[in-house]
Amino acid sequence: MKPGGGSGGGRPVQGRQRVKTARNRSAQSTRWLERQLNDPYVRRAKAEGYRSRAAYKLLELDERFGFLKGARRVVDLGIAPGGWTQVVRRRVPGAAVVGIDLLPVDPIDGATIFEMDFMSDEAPARLMEALGGAPDLVLSDMAANTVGHPQTDALRTMGLVEAAHAFAIEVLRPGGAFVAKVFAGGADAAFVAEMKRNFATVKHAKPPASRKGSVEWFVVAQGFKGRPSAGEPAAEG
Ligand SMILES: C[S@@+](CC[C@H](N)C(=O)[O-])C[C@H]1O[C@@H](n2cnc3c(N)ncnc32)[C@H](O)[C@@H]1O
């Protein structure tokens, strides 16, 4: 998602960094670079040793909802480059984390990381084998690569979220939580109703670190009701 390269070369103009347009840099990547240079969360992430500004979205969500406290086993879907897992490890140092991403990720102490597609048949079993027990928390920051067509992008990302939710309700321990990135127009009523059948509370949130212009929102589902035992009907609404 990071277009272009370049060393920056910005000069301050009225407190804002401006970037000279280089011949080999597109207007889009110049804008991206300018935004990065002027983003306080990017600076903070650098200063505090987080690999991504996304780390602050999880920190802010946790400040509001408190799902990290006491977590012992955590799954991080779409882990790269690793900001969310760093937050988990710093907040709850004893927690074991397993993560998965299409992209390679540099090692993180206390985390087992798979470079594979979460949508592949074998992914759920590989994650669970590595975790060695039911998680208290399933995180998903997965987003499909955007194609620029808003409806298509929302649908593709919602496909990932729904797969993450299906996995979460299959593996979570009762009382556990599911936190996932959704698109504003994407978490449709039927999906929210399905989550509400499975969790005591389901809330939508847009943490301050999530850029105002982006359509990204998060869903925080807490108090997993558990799977019905054999012969028992599924929980109602
Ligand atoms: C916004 S980034 C995650 C940032 C991360 N939470 C952090 O703090 O560093 C979304 C990630 O989802 C991954 N992703 C998208 N589709 C995936 C899939 N099918 N399986 C695994 N990872 C996927 C992308 O490769 C990308 O790295």
Automatic annotation (TrEMBL):
Subcellular localization, as worded in the UniProt entry: Cytoplasm
This protein's UniProt keywords: Cytoplasm, Methyltransferase, rRNA processing, S-adenosyl-L-methionine, Transferase
Stretches the record annotates as Disordered: 1-29
Known EC number: 2.1.1.166
Domain of life, per lineage: Bacteria
Entry's Gene Ontology BP terms: methylation
Catalytic activity line of the entry: uridine(2552) in 23S rRNA + S-adenosyl-L-methionine = 2'-O-methyluridine(2552) in 23S rRNA + S-adenosyl-L-homocysteine + H(+)
InterPro entries: RNA_methyltr_RlmE, RNA_MeTrfase_FtsJ_dom, rRNA-MeTfrase_E, SAM-dependent_MTases_sf
Domain Ribosomal RNA methyltransferase FtsJ: 50-224
Amino-acid positions noted as binding S-adenosyl-L-methionine in the UniProt annotation, renumbered to this chain: 82, 84, 101, 117, 141
Keyword Protein transport on entry: no
Enzyme class: transferase
Gene Ontology MF term list: methyltransferase activity
Pfam families: FtsJ (PF01728)
Compositional bias (Gly residues): 1-12
Catalytic residues identified in the record: 181 (proton acceptor)
Keyword rRNA processing appears in the UniProt entry: yes
PANTHER family recorded: RIBOSOMAL RNA METHYLTRANSFERASE, RRNA METHYLTRANSFERASE 2, MITOCHONDRIAL
HAMAP family, sorted: RNA_methyltr_E
Family: Belongs to the class I-like SAM-binding methyltransferase superfamily. RNA methyltransferase RlmE family.
Biological role: Specifically methylates the uridine in position 2552 of 23S rRNA at the 2'-O position of the ribose in the fully assembled 50S ribosomal subunit.
Protein name: Ribosomal RNA large subunit methyltransferase E
